[in-house]
Amino acid sequence: MLLEGKTGLVMGVANKRSIAWAIARATADAGARLVLTYQNERLGENVHKLAPELKDPILLPCDVQNDDEIDSLGAEIGSRVGHLDFVVHALAFAPREALTGAYSETSREAFRIALDVSAYSLVAVAHRLAPLLKEREGSIITLTYLGSERVVPGYNLMGVAKAALEASVRYLANDLGPDHIRVNAISAGPIKTLASSAVSGISGMLKLHSERAPLRKPTETDEVGDTALFLASSLSRGITGEVIYVDGGFHILGV
Ligand SMILES: NC(=O)c1ccc[n+]([C@@H]2O[C@H](COP(=O)([O-])OP(=O)(O)OC[C@H]3O[C@@H](n4cnc5c(N)ncnc54)[C@H](O)[C@@H]3O)[C@@H](O)[C@H]2O)c1
């Protein structure tokens, strides 16, 4: 039981196909007690239905575009638990029209929203929750995708947001390292979820990945869950500021 006696926050469960849900199950199975957040009441209904599969979770709302909700989340966890051992940030958003056609047509407003929700939110959450993670060898984990480094047609604006997210991982790792808080990202291969269905060409990406990735198979959410378990646990205590690929090796290919 790698996470026995530990408490973690998992942000980003929308339904049972969410990467955040696979991470919740993997970390709970390893003994962690969890706080789950949901973006709004509609998605909160799904989270409340899934919650009985976990042992005694705390469910709280948090829309990361709202600083007051992030503050309330920190205050609520502070008063109900008093500390955190790990935080999973598994959320992102870009307006659907920015995930199709030419990247050069991206509007200022779409750019602002995508960078706010998908990249700045990690900074806001890390800053607000660092006092709860401090001196507990805390671990912050976020989710990214190869479209941050390579052009993936259709991923467009989200690739730029993920590049900002990965740079934030490095700067946050350096800021929070002296408090023994680690910050890492998992770069997952394409998986069919609510968020990825907004990316035009997702079906082609899934097919290409299965055919070409060195492991010749699709990325599974439980593979991502197990890597998050490793990053949440002390097994990864020497690793920070890193992007770990869970993509069957797809990112090593040149052609
Ligand atoms: N599915 C993939 O192929 C894939 C690959 C690599 C990385 N990722 C990343 O994994 C993470 C999880 O995505 P997923 O694929 O599990 O999809 P998902 O739709 O299950 O999860 C996305 C989550 O983001 C949340 N969210 C969006 N805007 C929010 C806001 N303002 N406040 C709070 N929460 C908000 C949604 O409520 C949802 O729970 C994302 O960062 C995504 O970019 C996904």
Strand/helix succession: EHEHEHEHEHEHHE
Helical content stands at 40-55%
User: Structural class of the secondary elements?
Assistant: alpha/beta
What ranges have pLDDT less than 50 throughout 5 or more consecutive residues?
Answer: none
What ligand species are in this complex? nicotinamide-adenine-dinucleotide
Taking the alpha carbons of the first and last residues, their distance comes to 41 Å
What does the largest sheet look like?
A: 7 strands, parallel
Number of helices: 7
* Number of DSSP E strands: 7
Provide the residue-averaged pLDDT.
97
What global shape is seen? globular
Q: Which strands sit side by side, in order, in the main sheet?
A: 3-2-1-4-5-6-7
Approximately how much beta-strand content do the residues carry? 5-15%
Over the alpha carbons, how many angstroms does the gyration radius reach?
A: 17 Å
